[in-house]
Write a structure and sequence with these properties.
Chain lengths: 279, 275, 308
């Protein structure tokens, strides 16, 4: 038997003010602790993903496209350079979804650990914000790694290229926050993912001007790009990494779109988490 | 029909594997799968069919415009017709892998469905065949569905192309058998993820989007040995009507996968449940 | 006695049309051990979640530590230790990480938690499992961890929803001992349970709930006194004859209950009643005289039909 502990009681030891100001950080800490168990896997994916895609599509498919396009190139550059910013934003979005949707489903449906958190002074709002913050950290890491791989592939031509990091992160967390809110609504997520991946993610990935300019798609498909955070981030990314023509108005539009989505995503995740926990 | 074929194969192997592992009633497992089928399962199957179609439009037509025609065995082929068979082969693989890994893992570890099944007169091979039967039906549906979309678009220039449907079933069978065998060795969900980590590069480099000739020889050699590359070349040979003995080589490759997969699945289920 | 720690008046919770908790009134005093008894679906867990300041009541008044949980949820939860019916541990984390992170949710310092975790691991007898993933624990271990987790913040009120379901008898008795010690230190306990022996062991006072309402309230001894007799005589005539014999036995005691396999006779003196039966020329196949228990009260108040 160890020395018996003298009980002080929660009235003594619990500091309410501290929880109110830092609660979401505690939740993020829990998420990051969980992520650390996977850190090698997360890093491996973060590195392998850009390398594989840039090699296979950027260089492989690129070889055929560059040959056929001649000196004009695609949007004035090599296909690899054209493609890379889109893949950067895609990786950000994928990482954000992983870290927002799975923890949310675990927390509400599979393990119900959010109910455990909510039995403490932690509020639904703080849980939602904490999950978001942890996913933000993962996205920043993923994007930075991706950016350096792009650098190694010689896909960055502009001196402003580093600014593509924040724009890609913004696309990732904006999309992630929306999916976090949606995941918070799911009672029976059975099959949700397969369907979500194939009917939402896949079309967005394929038809957001990712692989060729949006303008070369039939007009009746171009709306997919307009509503897609991927397209908005890709346009910004292309401007920043190689100087793709972009008017100031459009640049602002893209930013406003992504920030609005982010604000809505955070607002609704907090709302939905709180309401669901109070049921 | 597919199931009776599967059963027939198993029957033929019955003597060798012994009565202990096979009671000839894999049909019951298949029936369970049918009853357990939910409307959402249909959505998953449908979505698996939609995926290659989306890729076809995005890559075949979108990128095709930038790429133009592509050379395959000396023929100049529109890009969409070049990648269509690869997409069919890939969706047969993906469907089979999903059915035989995540689905099976859940039944094995979470729902403990096999514990119940194997407490009856059913043997492990019944379970394996019954489960894999479901993957075959899916492979068949994808084959037929995809054909119905791409043939009217003129992407199947050869009549041999009709054989792409049984080829999709064969491919699904091979992947499902090996997938299920691997799943029985998995200890956690994380390990299952490893399967996915292998699938992505295989998909990206197996010659779906361009001829393998762009790669150095040594790399071509490795890629050709991978099952997806085998599958793509089999289906592409059929849809483009480039028939040669090499196709038989691809077929044998999948037959070996099926035999090896079933052997290890049975062995492993035996070890897990019939100790 | 100071003012009650928990006061509920007309507490009601509806889920759409379904009334889970139906205008109940109760008080829990500081340092008291208060039990909620009732069959499945009686509304115990819902009541627990409302007291736990996580579920919002539909109507009625509720004060916990002098605060309204609707307005001061986090402030109230800061002083509660909650052990839910279903373990909701963080499966991503190891055993000690679960305790650590849970402590963080109360804003507790690393230094405090370092010693606290050791104490709790010992309490839950999970020292050897400290670095194990929660997923790999047995059901009983998970339960012990959930209970230990509820104690990390040294709560004023400990809420235990069927704490010993899934525990073996050894672990049950150890837990009872620990809970008793907490009570001695002034911790208020609110407990729901199916186990009548547990309720008798742990609760100073309890309420029996059924279909969202409180059927009875009092100490275990008082409830037995009010709703049962001192002793119960159980006799069997064989399943065919029980019903016919029961008719003859009516009037010989305060209350008689006829079950398919046996007849229960409620009496202040079981032996005397049995003799009376023999002298009336009736010869049951088996007979048993026992003390009346909380289970008799429970079954009388909530009926014998299966609820689910």
């Amino acid at each position: 038997m160890s020395t018996p502990h003298i009980r002080q009681g929660s009235l003594e030891i619990v500091d309410q003010e501290k929880i109110i100001s830092r609660g979401s950080l505690y939740v993020a800490q829990a998420r990051l602790t969980a992520m650390m168990k996977w850190i090698w896997m997360i890093l491996a994916i973060a590195v392998a993903n850009p390398v594989l895609y840039l090699l296979s599509i950027g260089i492989g498919v690129g070889a055929f496209i560059d040959k056929s396009a001649g000196a004009a190139g695609i949007d004035g550059v090599k296909y690899l350079t054209f493609l890379a910013p889109a893949l950067l934003a895609t990786a950000a979005i994928q990482g954000a979804i992983d870290e927002s949707v799975f923890p949310t489903l675990e927390g509400f449906n599979w393990w119900k650990n959010f109910l455990g958190m909510n039995a403490t002074p932690i509020s639904g709002n703080q849980i939602a914000t904490g999950v978001f913050l942890a996913s933000f950290v993962r996205v920043v890491g993923t994007v930075i790694i991706y950016w350096f791989v792009m650098l190694a592939f010689g896909a960055l031509e502009s001196s402003k290229a580093w600014l593509a990091i924040p724009t890609a992160v913004m696309a990732g967390v904006a999309f992630g926050s929306i999916t976090q809110a949606i995941a918070g609504l799911l009672k029976d997520e059975n099959m949700f993912f397969v369907i979500f991946n194939r009917f939402v993610m896949m079309p967005l990935f394929l038809f957001s001007g990712t692989f060729y300019p949006l303008s070369s798609m039939p007009i009746y498909l171009q709306w997919i790009g307009w509503i897609s955070p991927l397209w908005h981030a890709t346009e910004l990314g292309r401007y920043l990494t190689y100087g793709h023509a972009l008017t100031q108005t459009m640049a602002i539009t893209h930013m406003v779109f992504l920030l609005t989505l982010l604000a809505l995503g955070i607002f609704f995740s907090r709302r939905i988490f709180t309401m669901r926990l109070a049921k | 029909m597919i199931i009776s074929a599967a059963v027939a194969i198993a029957e033929a192997r019955r003597g060798r594997l012994g009565e202990r592992v096979y009671s000839g009633r894999s049909r019951a497992i298949f029936e369970r799968g049918y009853i357990a089928f939910k409307s959402s399962t249909w959505m998953v199957i449908l979505s698996g069919f939609v995926e290659p179609v989306l890729y076809l439009f995005a890559f075949g037509y979108g990128l095709g415009e930038l790429i133009g025609n592509i050379e395959s065995n000396g023929l100049s082929i529109p890009y969409a017709a070049y990648i269509a068979p690869a997409l069919l082969a890939t969706s047969a693989m993906n469907g089979a892998i999903y059915d035989s890994t995540f689905n099976i893992y859940f039944k094995l570890k979470h729902d403990r469905i096999y514990h119940g099944m194997l407490a009856t007169s059913l043997g492990p091979l019944d379970v394996a065949l019954g489960e894999i039967g479901l993957a075959l039906v899916r492979g068949f549906l994808y084959g037929v569905g995809f054909m119905a979309v791409v043939a009217p678009l003129g992407l199947i220039p050869s009549l041999w192309g009709i054989l792409a449907i049984p080829a999709a079933v064969l491919i699904a069978f091979g992947f499902a058998a090996v997938g299920m065998a691997l799943t029985t060795y998995m200890k956690s969900f994380q390990q299952l993820e490893i399967i996915n980590i292998f699938l992505l590069p295989m998909f990206l480099f197996s010659g779906s989007f361009y001829p393998l000739t762009v790669f150095p020889e040594w790399l071509q050699f490795i890629i050709k040995a991978l099952p997806l590359s085998q599958a793509i070349h089999l289906v592409r040979g059929l849809t483009l009507g480039q028939i040669n003995l090499g196709l038989l080589g691809h077929v044998s490759y999948f037959i070996v996968m099926i035999i090896v997969g079933l052997f290890f699945t049975t062995k492993r289920l035996n070890a897990l449940f019939m100790k | 006695m100071s003012s009650p720690l928990i006061t509920a008046r007309g507490l009601t919770k509806k889920f759409d049309e379904f009334v889970a908790v139906d205008e109940i009134d109760f008080d829990v005093a500081r340092g008291e051990s208060f039990g909620l008894l009732g069959p499945n679906g009686a509304g115990k867990s819902t009541t627990m979640r409302i007291i736990g300041a996580t579920s919002q009541r539909t109507s009625g008044d509720l004060t916990i530590l002098g605060m309204d949980p609707e307005k001061f949820g986090p402030q109230i939860r800061a002083h509660l230790g909650v052990v839910p019916q279903q373990d909701n541990l963080d499966m991503n984390l190891s055993v000690s990480e679960n305790l650590y992170i849970y402590g963080r949710y109360f804003g507790l310092s690393r230094k405090f938690l370092k010693t606290k975790i050791e104490e709790l691991l010992e309490f839950a007898q999970l020292q050897e499992k400290r670095n194990a993933k929660v997923e790999s624990l047995s059901g009983g271990m998970k339960r012990r961890l959930t209970i230990a987790r509820g104690l990390v913040s040294e709560p004023e009120i400990l809420m235990l929803d069927e704490p010993t379901t899934g525990l073996d008898p050894q672990a049950r008795h150890i837990l009872w001992d620990r809970l008793f010690r907490l009570k001695e230190q002034g911790v208020t306990l609110v407990i729901t349970t199916h186990f009548m022996d547990e309720a008798e062991q742990l609760c100073d006072r309890l309420v029996v709930m059924d279909k969202g309402k409180i059927m009875a309230e009092g100490s275990p001894a008082q409830l037995i006194k009010d709703y049962s007799t001192k002793e119960v005589l159980e006799i069997r005539f064989g399943s065919e004859r029980n019903s016919e014999m029961a008719d003859q036995l009516r009037g010989m005691c305060d209350r008689i209950e006829e079950l398919p396999d046996r007849i229960l006779l409620y009496s202040e003196d079981g032996e005397a009643l049995l003799e009376k039966i023999y002298s009336a020329g009736l010869h049951p196949k088996t007979s048993l005289v026992r003390r009346s228990s909380l289970e008799d009260v429970f079954l009388r108040l909530t009926g014998r039909t299966l609820v689910d």
